[in-house]
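Q: Please design a sequence for this.
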């Protein structure tokens, strides 16, 4: 059976669990009534407290008709959450509270200064040092502290409204203080604006006077520089030299164009005269009236020649006379062309001379314009400085007039207003007797019910086997049967008194009757003395009487002797103590007879950090004791954390009245980690042999002189208890 399947074999018996409420109803009801009564009495006797509320709206209150010229609502920042939080801090600031306390004489009231009327209980607490002496605090600080305790200032969610709450046992005083704080805040905002306005006028007055002087100086510099540099202004607000340069450049362009046109025309006339071509295509020739008349005469002669040629021959005197006249006309036209050519050449030369003159003038004006440009830059800089200072002066003068007018008319709008007048509270907000009593009753009833259910659940009484669960046979540890010790003759001492062999293992080695000698037979003097031991009942009585917290059992004889620790744990548990058995044997011999399986998580899982305390503690099937088995983790890995055993033992001894540890055949060094305050060391013994004796002697020699021998002989295990599946 695996651990998971074993753990799944139990269920919570809900009927048994909730039946515990019926069994313990009287205790639950009594505790609930007591708590309810105490809550009712405390609420009834408490001093009633009244709370008054004043609400302030935060926002600009400037009218559109009184707003300074040039400003709009957009100039003012929006009131956001940070702004509202800032105003909350201002309202609860010490300056405002001090003013309210002084106006209302709160320092004369015992509610705000406990030194005026200290109770006897308060004086006693101060004397024993459980309360600070109020006389050590200045009176003003005491009043402020009391006001802070009763004041609550907060911003209403998703709004620009601030609530000012003040509580007092006097409703009228609560309303007065809340209203006074709101009015003091509005007054402080107005005073702040007045101080800001006064500071502004105080700053602007000297600044305006200084700016006026600077503006005069700047404008004087502009006029002086303009006169010194001889910067004459022409049209279009430009320097005269620059304007002349522009006009000459235009004239130069026109002269160059005329010269180029005259040269081109003269060149075409020259080519026509040189090549003997006609001059009809030259515009300047055609524009001459003389040439036009000559050309008309030439056309007329050619027409006559053509008419006469039809009737006369070429040598006819008349035709020859007409041709002679035609030749004279051609010569006259060419002479006129030469004259036109000379006129065009003269025109081109005149234009060239004019061009040269204009170029010289342009170069001169270029230099003058460059100098004028530099001077103009300097003049512009002076002019800009003068303009800037004049603009600043005008701005300051406008602001000064606005501030002065507001100061004269005492108009300083505050960016907040009181939404409504504070009302005197009629009902106390504390104590609410009904809700307090009801909450105390419900809480106490619920807590008592939960506590009862948890107690029933952790005790294991509410656990039952799961439906269909199968349990393997429980392995029992065989207990040795009772044995009869042979009688040994006791020697007498010198005084004749009977003495018994000392039961202390530390006093020499004792001898035991040889096993196998029949009862009643005459036995020879034994070679071993009888060891004195106690039974399980005596061991349990010793642990209960001594109030021991730990019982360490060492079993030199192996797994069979481990039954001693189991029987002692059950015996002490039956006596009513909370007992836990910790199995540290290698085979799990001590925990196997107490559980239905050897696969439950145990101490190795706890050391290996694979489980918690609640996972490794299980109930004994035969008693009310609990057991921590060996576990299922790797022993080698678990032993690496063996240093945690003292911490685990300390935790277990805190939770249980007695922790029984079965260590198997361990030595003194092996049990050193388990020993603590209130520890008893026992040696489990089935038969008194040399092995047991040597183990006892080694324990005594290594620091455990009070070791006790216990034998389980004669004890039988009981019947399993039903439903014992979980220690939780």
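A: Design:
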């Amino acid at each position: 059976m695996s651990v998971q399947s074993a753990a799944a074999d139990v269920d919570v018996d809900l009927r048994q669990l909730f039946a515990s409420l019926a069994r313990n109803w009287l205790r639950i009801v009594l505790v609930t009534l007591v708590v309810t009564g105490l809550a009712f009495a405390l609420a009834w006797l408490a001093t009633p407290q009244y709370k008054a509320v004043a609400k302030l709206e935060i926002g600009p209150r400037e009218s559109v008709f009184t707003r300074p010229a040039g400003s709009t609502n957009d100039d003012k920042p929006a009131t956001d959450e940070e702004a509202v939080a800032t105003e909350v801090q201002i309202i609860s600031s010490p300056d405002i509270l001090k003013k309210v306390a002084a106006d209302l004489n709160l320092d004369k009231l015992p509610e705000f200064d406990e030194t005026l009327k200290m109770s006897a209980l308060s004086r006693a607490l101060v004397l024993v040092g459980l309360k600070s002496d109020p006389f050590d605090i200045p009176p003003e600080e005491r009043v402020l502290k009391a006001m802070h305790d009763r004041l609550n200032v907060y911003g209403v969610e998703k709004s620009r409204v601030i609530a000012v709450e003040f509580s007092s046992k006097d409703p009228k005083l609560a309303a007065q203080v809340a209203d006074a704080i709101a009015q003091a805040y509005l007054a402080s905002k107005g005073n702040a604006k007045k101080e800001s306005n006064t500071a502004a006028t105080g700053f602007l007055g000297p600044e305006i006077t200084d700016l006026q002087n600077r503006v005069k100086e700047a404008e004087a510099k502009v006029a002086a520089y303009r006169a010194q540099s001889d910067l004459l202004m022409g049209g279009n607000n430009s320097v005269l030299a620059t304007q002349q340069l522009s006009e000459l450049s235009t004239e130069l362009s026109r002269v160059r164009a005329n010269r180029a046109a005259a040269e081109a025309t003269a060149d075409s006339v020259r080519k026509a005269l040189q090549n003997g071509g006609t001059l009809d295509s030259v515009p300047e020739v055609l524009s001459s009236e003389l040439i036009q008349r000559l050309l008309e005469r030439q056309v007329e002669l050619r027409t006559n020649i053509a008419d006469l040629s039809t009737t006369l021959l070429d040598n006819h005197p008349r035709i020859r006379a007409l041709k002679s006249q035609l030749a004279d006309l051609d010569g006259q036209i060419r002479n006129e062309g030469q004259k036109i050519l000379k006129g065009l050449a003269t025109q081109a030369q005149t234009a060239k001379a004019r061009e040269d003159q204009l170029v010289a003038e342009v170069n001169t004006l270029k230099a003058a314009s460059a100098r004028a440009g530099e001077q103009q830059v300097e003049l512009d800089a002076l002019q800009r400085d003068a303009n800037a200072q004049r603009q600043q002066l005008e701005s300051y003068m406008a602001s000064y007039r606005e501030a002065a007018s507001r100061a004269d008319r005492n108009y300083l709008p505050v960016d907040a207003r009181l939404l409504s007048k504070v009302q005197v509270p009629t009902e106390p907000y504390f104590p609410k007797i009904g809700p307090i009593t009801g909450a105390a009753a419900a809480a106490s009833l619920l807590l008592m019910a939960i506590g009862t259910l948890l107690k029933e659940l952790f005790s294991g009484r509410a656990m039952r086997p799961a439906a269909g669960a199968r349990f393997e046979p429980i392995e029992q540890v065989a207990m040795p049967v009772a044995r009869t010790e042979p009688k040994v003759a006791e020697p007498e001492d010198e005084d004749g008194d009977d003495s018994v062999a000392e039961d202390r293992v530390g006093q020499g080695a004792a001898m035991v009757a040889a096993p196998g000698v029949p009862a009643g037979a005459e036995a020879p003097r034994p070679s071993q003395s009888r060891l004195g031991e106690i039974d399980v009942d005596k061991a349990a009585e010793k642990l209960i009487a001594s109030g021991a917290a730990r019982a360490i059992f060492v079993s030199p004889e192996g797994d069979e002797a481990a039954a001693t620790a189991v029987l002692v744990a059950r015996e002490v548990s039956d006596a009513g103590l909370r007992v836990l058995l910790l199995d540290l044997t290698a085979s799990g011999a001590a925990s196997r007879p107490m559980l239905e399986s050897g696969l439950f998580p145990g101490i190795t899982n706890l050391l290996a950090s694979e489980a918690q305390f609640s996972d490794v503690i299980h109930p004994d099937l035969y008693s009310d004791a609990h057991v921590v088995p060996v576990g299922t983790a790797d022993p080698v890995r678990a032993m690496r954390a063996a240093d945690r055993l003292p911490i685990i033992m300390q935790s277990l001894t805190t939770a249980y009245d007695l922790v029984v540890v079965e260590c198997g055949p361990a030595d003194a060094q092996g049990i050193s980690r388990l020993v603590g305050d209130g520890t008893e060391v026992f040696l489990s013994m089935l038969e008194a042999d040399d092995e047991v004796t040597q183990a006892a002697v080694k324990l005594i020699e290594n620091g455990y002189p009070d070791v006790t021998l216990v034998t389980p002989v004669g004890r039988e295990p009981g019947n399993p208890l039903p439903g014992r599946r979980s220690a939780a």
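Q: Thanks. Anything notable?
A: The CA atoms of residues 55 and 420 lie 7 Å apart. Residues 533-710 form a domain with the Rossmann fold fold (CATH 3.40.50.300).
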